Amino acid sequence: MAKIGIAFPDFITTEKINRRRAPSDFLRNAGNRPRVLLAILIIFCGVLIFRLFSLQIIEGRYFRSLANSNRVKTVIIHAPRGVVTDRWGQVLVRNVPGFRKVISGKTKLLSKEEALAEIAKGEKGLEIDSLRFYPYKESLAHVLGYIGQIDPQELKNPSYSGYLGGDLIGKFGIEKEYENFLRGIDGRELIEINNTGEEIRKLGKSDPISGRNIN
After folding, report:
1. Which of 78, 83, 210 is nearest to 134 (CA)?
2. How does pLDDT run across 72-92, given as a tens digit for each residue?
3. Can you give the CATH number for the domain in which 196 is found?
4. Domain contains 212
5. Model confidence at 8, in pLDDT bands (50, 70, 90)?
6. Which of 79, 136, 149, 199 has the lowest CB atom count within 10 Å?
7. For the segment 35-75, what is each residue's pLDDT rounded down to a tens digit?
8. From start to end of 32-172, where are the E strands?
9. How far are the Cα atoms of 60, 117, 181 from residue 82, in angstroms, in the given order?
10. To the nearest 5 percent, what fractions of the chain are helix, strand and coil?
11. Looking at the structure, do residues 175 and 189 belong to the same domain, yes or no?
12. Are residues 62 and 86 in the same domain?
């Protein structure tokens, strides 16, 4: 016959022991969590550092070798100039879609229709740009002014530091007076080309930043 008096206390004793152990097991598992998180963080940082090394060292050397062999073409993405309005919000100067053609360092602005005609003739060297539109040109020309291609003398002026030949700048009136506000920051696109000048792939791009508006 089973000894009930002994078996029952054994069960109680075992249950008590298990209950005493449970908190320590929980704490032990909780103590491992920071180690797991630290390991994940170390792996993530390692991948990030390797990627940065790859971009700056390995791919950087590759891009430099392409540039040295004239296999990288830089395309300028022209930034739109700022819009000019009066104190009531009436637009006095704005931009309209257009193109520019660069020939022997000289820039010629083209309307959409003119650009399409050039493309139909198989002409190359067209760049997307914007044209300035003056709704009140006749009555406010002396105030608003106009823009034109920067000349060699102006390129030597410290005020135009960072400008390139062919850039358009304010030549008179508000366009000139607020050149630093109206002018945006051009973007760049790097394109890998083959020895015949055909595009192979795009290497990178920085978007243009539009000029600030004036009212």
Report:
1. 83
2. 888 888 899 999 999 999 999
3. 3.90.1310.10
4. no
5. very low
6. 199
7. 777 778 888 888 878 777 766 666 666 666 655 556 888 88
8. 72-77, 84-85, 91-103, 106-110, 126-133, 146-149, 168-172
9. 35, 28, 7
10. 45, 30, 25
11. yes
12. no
Q: Verify that 86 and 104 share a domain, yes or no.
A: yes
- pTM, whole model, 2 decimals? 0.61
- 213 inside domain: no
Whole-angstrom distance, CA of residue 193 vs CA of residue 73: 7
Domain count, the chain: 2
Number of CB atoms found within 10 A of residue 94's CB: 18
User: How confident is the model over 155-200, as pLDDT tens digits?
Assistant: 999 999 989 888 899 999 999 999 999 999 999 999 888 877 788 8
Structure tokens of 97?
């879609």
Do 114 and 60 fall into the same domain?
no
Q: Hey, how many other C-beta atoms are within 10 angstroms of the C-beta on 145?
A: 21
Contact 145, 174 (CB under 8 A): yes
